[in-house]
Amino acid sequence: MSDLHEQITRRIDAATNELVSLTSELIRFPTINPPGEDYTPCAEYIGNRLKKRGFQVNYFRGRGTPGDTDRFPRTNVIARFEGRGPGPTVHFNSHIDVVEVGSDWSMDPFAGIVRDGKVYGRGACDMKGGLASSIIAVEAYIDANPGFMGAIEISGTVDEETGGYGGVAYLAEKGLFSKPRVDHVIIPEPLNKDRICLGHRGVWWAEIETLGVQAHGSMPFLGDCAVRHMGAVLSAFEDELFPLLASKQTDMPVVPKGAKKSTMNINSIHGGDGEDYSGFPAANVPDSCRIVIDRRFLLEEDLATVKREVTNILEGLKDNREDFDYAIRDMWDVLPTMTERDAPVVQAVSQAIEEVMDKKPEYVISPGTYDQKHVARIGHLHDCIAYGPGILDLAHRADEYVIIDDMVESAKVMAFATHQLLTGGK
């Protein structure tokens, strides 16, 4: 280990209590999305801390993006520390939003409780532990090597859990995730401390509506039940589409194993009278039924074929089922992405994992998308990976936690990789 790495190691070890405290403080901001609560105070907390350490801090509101209102502004923070001269920029990007709490918690999900070597709370794993680790890593690196060349950025961005459009997508459209401003991006998502996540599968969300004719429920023969038509759609999916998806296998190193195949989730179904009332529903034959599908696809598939597999089934029903009619609406789609293993950021983090943990990393692909999609698609910056301390299987679950020792080791990896990327290994 070099003298610089030894200094960084000592500083991060000495900052363990601070790392734990920072993680707990971040958890205590209940940044639940939707609707997007407490984004501004959380972003300002991050900005105020880094400003005291000499970072230039700027806030960016994602005006006009989905969910942005004066009550729930989409507030992002980017903090930048300039080195002693020109050089590359390393950017650590973390999302500050968390999903809803849900049930079955055995403790206050926003207390940031420390117990048995872990920090508990909603967002501990996904991904405030990773954010805290990146902050401690960068601070330790700057203190140990104040004469570095280049720049380091840390961002806290919003709405990743709902697509990232008010966060990284908005910032990328403004050129804040593109060269020459940024050269390398590390996203501390919870993919396990000894894994490097190279990218993610593709996604297509769509709403399918079956159409019918309203009539009195006592005389359904005078109408046409849209819910029954949707039943035919679901039955056809079971018989035709799901077996087809199960037969597709990728060479991408997707985890967990089940995600190496194409998948589709029926996200929701709505038909007939709404549920925003008390009492009995009206006696109506429903003239509309809607489902939302969440289709995840592989690098080996193209989006046009993915969509055609669904529409071919719908068109077949239209040809063969009496009075069947439908509408389909695209909601959003993202192509699969995979950073090459010889990319600078991959090599830097790989070497750092080997040095810190004395083992070679596992290279993986995420089953779901995260903000790398916007860095690549909008920012056209492909030297980007996800690497963080959280355990993937704990994300979005009750009693979510992050292991303190994992955060410490990950912080060392991040700091070592930062030096490698800023110096080119020199």
Structural description of this entry:
By secondary structure, the protein is of the alpha/beta class. It folds into two domains: 3-200 and 336-423, 3-Layer(aba) Sandwich (Aminopeptidase); 202-334, Alpha-Beta Plaits, CATH 3.30.70. Helices cover 34% and strands 22% of the residues. The chain is built from ten helices and 16 strands. The chain has helices at 3-14, 16-27, 39-52, 124-144, 168-173, 226-246, 303-320, 344-357, 372-377, 404-423; strands spanning 56-61, 75-82, 89-95, 114-115, 118-120, 151-157, 184-187, 195-200, 202-211, 263-271, 288-297, 326-334, 337-338, 362-366, 384-386, 401-403. The strands form four sheets. The chain has a six-stranded mixed sheet with strand order 1-2-6-3-7-15. The protein has a four-stranded antiparallel sheet with strand order 10-11-9-12, with helices on one face. A hairpin with a 2-residue loop joins strand 4 (114-115) and strand 5. The longest helix has 21 residues, at 124-144. It is elongated. The model has no long low-confidence stretch (mean pLDDT 96).
Characterize this entry briefly:
This protein has 426 residues and is of the alpha/beta class. It is 34% helix and 22% strand.
Report strand order across the widest sheet: 1-2-6-3-7-15
Q: What is the H/E string?
A: HHHEEEEEHEHEEEHEEHEEHEHEEH
Number of helical segments?
A: 10
> Kindly state the mean pLDDT as a whole number?
96
User: How many domains, as an integer?
Assistant: 2
Query: Strand portion, in percent?
Result: 15-25%
Uncertain ranges: none
Q: Which architecture of the largest domain would the CATH scheme give at its second level?
A: 3-Layer(aba) Sandwich
Classify the helix fraction into a percent range.
Answer: 25-40%
* Rg, alpha carbons: 24 Å
Q: Quick one: CATH superfamily of the largest domain? A: Zn peptidases
The class by helix and strand makeup works out as alpha/beta
